[in-house]
Amino acid sequence: MSEAGGSVTAVSVIEARELTKTYGDFTAVDAISFDVAPGESFGLLGPNGAGKSTTMRMIGGTSLRTAGTLSVLGLDPERHGPEVRASLGVVPQADALDEELRARDNLYVYGRYFGLPRAYLKAKVPELLEFAQLTDKADAKVTALSGGMKRRLTIARGLINEPRILLLDEPTTGLDPQARHILWDRLFRLKEQGVTLVLTTHFMDEAEQLCDRLVVVDHGRIVAEGSPRGLIQEHTTREVVEVRFGSARNAEMQAELAALVADGQRSRAGLEVLPDRILLYTDDGEAMLEEINRRALNPLTQLVRRTSLEDVFLRLTGRSLID
């Protein structure tokens, strides 16, 4: 059986129906529906302020919903908060580690908050430090760790109770490329172990790397849902041509380029005018670029690339994921 906003299965670990959160006259989450299957890596993709973090807080039972229904592992997180949280791991946007404690002690103390036995933690803490590639930093204070190390320690902390679901809110924001790739590898390993991942991000490459399936959200509403590749195939063309004519000429070139894109192209072809460049969506970027040059339109810069989730969002909303 299926329902708008996601396929319904008897084994879904998260089911949201018309989930809504308002603050006075402001609607942060606007009647969204989705499902997450066990072992799936599920993403909420959208710009800052789209309602992603609010949705995560409702799943974790730390924010009450205004309307709709929500089930996590078969339980309502508002009515069964402690039971739900016992099976969740949470990685918030901010690391919130105790800066004066050693890395190992951050894990140990957090485990005691869960009421986990000392004998269990004595074995679990070294295991998690090894998973996070922090064994050699076990006795280092958090203040001595790099940003990537702190993020890995925060993920290790979220795994202290062996959660069935790990919630990750913007897991790699602020990290350099190398640190992001290390973190992605750790998350892949968790997925291979059967942990369900639910993450928010506004990085399209992160969503494409980590997510089996995702919803694209904007202004609190779901505007698209599917696998990363499926969304690209459904909503845009195979390639995009980026051209720049300079701030004075970009607007005046719009009409001629729009006619060029429409000539013999599929319905998903189109044109987007951004402040600094013009995007032409086409199935054959090189042929489009050759035609632009044949007509002597003389762009200052030109580039052909594959379309991405960033393009999907732009085509659906008319604005970029990164505001």
TrEMBL record:
Respond yes or no to whether keyword ATP-binding is given for this record: yes
Topology versus the membrane: Peripheral membrane protein
Tell me if tRNA-binding is a UniProt keyword of this record: no
Where does the protein end up? Cell membrane
The cross-references to InterPro entries, in alphabetical order and at most eight, read: AAA+_ATPase, ABC_transporter-like_ATP-bd, ABC_transporter-like_CS, ABC_transporter_ATP-binding, P-loop_NTPase
Question: Where does this protein chiefly localize?
Answer: membrane
Keyword set for this entry? Antibiotic resistance, ATP-binding, Nucleotide-binding, Transport
Q: Which molecular function term from Gene Ontology is one that the record holds?
A: ATP binding
What are the ABC transporter domain coordinates in residue numbering?
A: 14-244
Q: Which SUPFAM superfamilies match?
A: P-loop containing nucleoside triphosphate hydrolases
Q: Which PROSITE patterns match?
A: ABC_TRANSPORTER_1, ABC_TRANSPORTER_2
Which Pfam family, any one of them, does this sequence belong to? ABC_tran
Question: Which family is it part of?
Answer: Belongs to the ABC transporter superfamily.
| Protein name, per record | ATP-binding cassette domain-containing protein
Per the UniProt entry, what species is this protein from, by scientific name? Propioniciclava soli
Organism classification:
Bacteria, Bacillati, Actinomycetota, Actinomycetes, Propionibacteriales
